[in-house]
């Protein structure tokens, strides 16, 4: 038996700087309801959906509607501080991010998201350019799997040798 551990879902201290701060530092004037949406996002960690934000807004009595949430998400996504992530089940979710280029590892056990940088990928792409003669101008990569915590809590199908 594997030693028992508390499985604490969604307890990831996401590690991204507060959205509002990022927006202010970039000199972006975001007013009223959109600011409220940014606040709601800051209060979360890991993946969230538009519906999650609406639920939060309801609980906190923040008077914003569906259309406002979607418009704010679009804007924040355009600014690169929120990213839309495709999930393996065909759905999608959002996550707050630093505007710098990076990738995500998404845990399908607890939903936590870790930002991962390019490391060897940059070399791999240079290699692909050499082989194909193409110039690669962009790429997307998302990684799915189990975070270290979920790996220790879920024995899963460990032995298949
Ligand atoms: Zn990100
Ligand atoms: Zn996990
Ligand atoms: Zn990359």
**Remind me, CATH topology of the largest domain?**
Arc Repressor Mutant, subunit A
User: Largest sheet, order of strands side by side?
Assistant: 4-3-5
The dominant shape is globular
Total strands: 5
Overall CATH class of the largest domain: Mainly Alpha
**SSE pattern:** HHHHEEEEHEH
Q: Tell me the structural class.
A: alpha+beta
Describe the structure.
- With 161 residues, this protein is an alpha+beta fold.
- It folds into two domains: 16-99, Winged helix-like DNA-binding domain superfamily/Winged helix DNA-binding domain (Arc Repressor Mutant, subunit A, Orthogonal Bundle); 101-155, Ferric-uptake regulator, C-terminal dimerisarion domain (Dna Ligase, domain 1, 2-Layer Sandwich), CATH 3.30.1490.
- 37% of the residues lie in helices and 14% in strands.
- The chain has six helices and five strands.
- The strands form two sheets. The protein has a three-stranded mixed β-sheet with strand order 4-3-5, with no helix packed on it. A two-stranded antiparallel sheet has the order 1-2.
- Strand 1 and strand 2 (92-96) form a beta hairpin.
- Helix 2 (32-42) crosses helix 4 and helix 3 (50-59) packs across helix 4 (66-78).
- The chain is globular and about 55 Å long.
- The two termini are 19 Å apart.
- Bound molecules: zinc ion (3 copies).
- One zinc ion binds next to loops.
């Amino acid at each position: 038996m594997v030693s028992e551990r508390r499985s604490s879902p969604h307890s990831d201290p996401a590690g991204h700087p507060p959205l509002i701060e990022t927006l202010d530092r970039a000199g972006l004037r975001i007013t009223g309801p959109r600011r409220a949406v940014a606040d709601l996002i800051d209060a979360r960690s890991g993946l969230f959906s538009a519906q999650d934000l609406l639920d939060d807004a309801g609980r906190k009595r923040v008077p914003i509607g569906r259309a406002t949430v979607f418009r704010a998400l679009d804007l924040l996504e355009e600014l690169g501080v929120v990213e839309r992530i495709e999930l393996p089940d065909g759905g999608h979710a959002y996550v707050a991010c630093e505007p710098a280029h990076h990738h995500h590892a998404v845990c399908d056990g607890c939903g936590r998201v870790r930002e991962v940088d390019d490391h060897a990928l940059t070399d791999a792409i240079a290699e692909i350019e050499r082989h194909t003669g193409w110039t690669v101008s962009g790429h997307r990569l998302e990684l799915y799997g189990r975070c270290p915590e979920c790996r220790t809590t879920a024995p899963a199908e460990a032995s298949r040798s």
